[in-house]
Design a protein that fits this description.
- There is one protein chain.
- By secondary structure, the chain is an alpha/beta fold.
- The chain is built from 13 helices and 7 strands.
- The chain has a domain of about 170 residues.
- The chain is about 50% helix and about 10% strand.
- Helix 2 crosses helix 12 and helix 2 packs across helix 13.
């Protein structure tokens, strides 16, 4: 092979080698690009999977939140919210009461009451025939025999009685003139008597009658026109006379071994104020305050209740009151637990409620002389409480968790009633003592001034104390009016 051909062959081989190298480099670049694209694609898939997971988690949270928001609202059936705050007064769908197994209505053997005839009637009217219905014979001179009698009870027309008090003067032989004196309560040329004041206070306090209707009642029933201003004046004077009795009631409550307390809002001239009550088995003390805090408690009972168990709800100012011991209202707790069961379907709340119901049943069966002794059933219930308070709650059940934390702080106040025979498990008596203020507002509207609501609390304290001691409220007001 000559040199020329050899050079040509080398050039051909060089070109082929360059082509192969270029092809390999191109393939390498293509593979690198594909690898990079694959990695990018895999990263995109991973990012999308993370996004999908986050979206699924968000959807789950939103669905749970939506379920909770659409869950049952708090009302008077499942919480401590008063019935007056119920939206549109929904029908009751649940109750803490269980079936007694008895039929509705009067039970067999119960004491009944019926209208009885009077042995000494005030008026007697005889009906004797004058002639025979058969032949027409005159029967006027014939002897009559009583065959039947009937009585009608009615109220006579009521008219006011005007009593004139006159004072005379006499002159002694020594020349000195001596005059008689008017009795206590006869201070003006003309005034209303003690019975009138008592009836006004009774209608105002016990029957919740507004001032305008009291005025109408006296005009229509007693034929005694009396203005609303005069009625207010009578109530003011009667409240001052009742102040000693009011203070005596306060002392009786303070010395009691068990005291229940509660508070409720009251509108006074459009502003929110508070009615407070402290009550015992024999007395009820009700007072008015613009505050719901501890200053009201200290203002009325600065020494607290060193010798009493205080029964109340979970209000901090109530639980902070100095007392021998505390008992929180289990009825409040059961209503809260009912709400938690409805909203979260919480098994924990259901078991806590069952424990409380078991303790209430145990209370009925504990002999009075064994309260200070060891009671196995009581210890078992306290063990269940300890387990429930140590149990972990689903963090999504925020209100259940909050309830548990609150009970941990108040655990010593839950079963006080299982250690003292006279301590009730609930605060229903205190709620009854101030429930009347809501009735008063519904019937009469809000109070216009502090004086009116203070007078009402004085009269209501006397009335409720009379009820507890089976005394006539009207007679009590009459006694106060004669002071």
């Amino acid at each position: 092979m000559d040199n020329t051909n050899f050079q040509l062959l080398l050039k051909v081989l060089e070109r082929e080698s360059s082509a192969r190298i270029a092809a390999e480099e191109a393939r390498a670049l293509d593979n690198s690009a594909r690898s990079a694209e694959n990695r990018k694609f895999q990263q995109t898939i991973e990012d999308l999977n993370k996004t999908i997971k986050q979206l699924n988690d968000t959807i789950g949270l939103l669905l749970e939140e939506n379920r909770l928001l659409k869950g049952p609202k708090k009302n008077s059936n499942n919480s401590s919210i008063p019935p007056s705050k119920d939206p549109n007064r929904p029908n009751r769908t649940s109750s803490l009461r269980k079936s007694s197994g008895k039929s509705s209505g009067g039970q067999t053997g119960h004491d009944g009451n019926t209208l009885q005839m009077c042995a000494t009637p005030d008026v007697v009217i005889d009906y004797s025939p004058d002639f025979c219905n058969c032949c027409g014979f005159d029967l006027i001179d014939q002897p009559a025999k009583l065959t039947s009698r009937r009585q009608v009870v009615d109220i006579p027309t009521i008219t006011p009685v005007y009593t004139e008090h006159r004072v005379f003067q006499k002159k002694c032989t020594c020349g000195h003139k001596t005059s008689g004196s008017f009795p206590n309560g006869v201070a003006a040329p003309i005034s209303y008597g003690a019975q009138t004041s008592a009836v006004i206070a009774y209608l105002h306090t016990r029957q919740f009658v507004p001032l305008a209707r009291i005025s109408e009642f006296f005009t229509s029933v007693y034929h005694m026109p009396i203005s609303q201003g005069t009625i207010c004046g009578i109530l003011d004077r009667l409240a001052k006379k009742a102040q000693p009795a009011f203070e005596l009631i306060k002392q009786v409550v303070c010395k009691s071994s068990v005291v229940g307390s509660d508070e409720t809002g009251v509108k006074v001239n459009g502003e929110l104020n508070w009615i407070w009550t402290w009550q015992s088995q024999k007395a009820t003390y009700i007072t008015f305050s613009p505050s719901r805090g501890k200053q009201t408690i200290h203002g009325n009972f600065p020494e607290g209740f060193d010798n009493a168990i205080l029964v109340s709800d979970c209000l901090a100012s109530q639980l902070g009151t100095k007392a021998k011991g505390h008992q929180i209202c289990t009825a409040h707790l059961l209503r809260e637990l009912l709400f938690l069961q409805e909203k979260y379907q919480s098994n924990w709340a259901d078991r806590f409620a069952s424990m409380l119901l078991s303790s209430l049943e145990l209370k009925k069966n504990i002999p009075i002389d064994t309260y200070q002794k060891h009671i196995k059933e009581r210890s078992d219930i306290e063990s269940i409480l300890a387990c429930l308070l140590n149990e972990k709650i689903d963090p999504r059940h925020v209100e259940v968790l909050t309830f548990q934390k609150r009970i941990i702080k108040l655990r010593d106040y839950i079963f006080t009633f299982l250690y003292h025979s006279e301590v009730p498990a609930e605060n229903n008596a205190s709620e009854r003592a101030i429930r009347n203020i809501k009735v008063k507002q519904k019937v009469s509207g809000m109070f216009k001034a502090d004086t009116g609501v203070r007078n009402y609390t004085i009269f209501r304290s006397i009335a409720d104390t009379c009820i507890k001691n089976t005394q006539c409220i009207l007679n009590a007001f009459y006694t106060v009016a004669t002071l």
